[in-house]
Amino acid sequence: MWDLLSINPFFGLFITFFFFLLGTLFHRRWPSIPLFNPLVFAITSIIILLLITGISYDNYNEGGRFINLWITPATVALAIKLEKNIVYLKKYYTAIISGIALGVLFHSAILVMVSILFQFNEELVATLFPKSITTAIALGVSESLGGIVSLTVAIVVFTGVLGTIVGPPIFALLKITDPVAQGVALGSGSHAMGTAKAIELGDVQAAMAGLSIVLTGIVVVILAPFVMGFVGALF
Asked: Which GO terms describe its molecular function (predicted)?
């Protein structure tokens, strides 16, 4: 039965949407439980289902791959929120741009230090470098730098989940109440998943998070060759 179902492209689409929507329901009921983050719940559930039934990833991906087509349009659609709150960008553009640039530089410096400490090779550095940008950009960066693309995806998801979990408590602990600061932090640190959390907090946070995704991606793409060149010289 499972073999007959799995060869149908709609099977991959169905179980992806089913588990994501189920995770959404659970997340609304128990928002404090990390496992019930819709994306985490869907990924975990699909992996378990494939292992139990013996369905190959290739069969699942016949339908699941169509989900990837929506990654870029979904990212671009965040501009709608930005257009409605453009006044905040005009007012705080210096702080936003400089903050994101410094954040990426700091992230790059830490990655280089960790690479030296644990003797990472260039392939692993290339895999880790785009971890804080949205999947649509991270895949291209990882591939162009010679990273392990599938591992990059897993790390990007983990980074996004971690950011959505620890972000709001950090805001509360440090008394960060400014919506612009919250949005920039979530968008630049946790990409699309952080933006989803920002949408829950408010329109301004959502707009700034959407903007931060784009700006962070641009800065990472610009810095990537220099970082990898430096790492290559070290090793």
From this structure: hydrolase activity
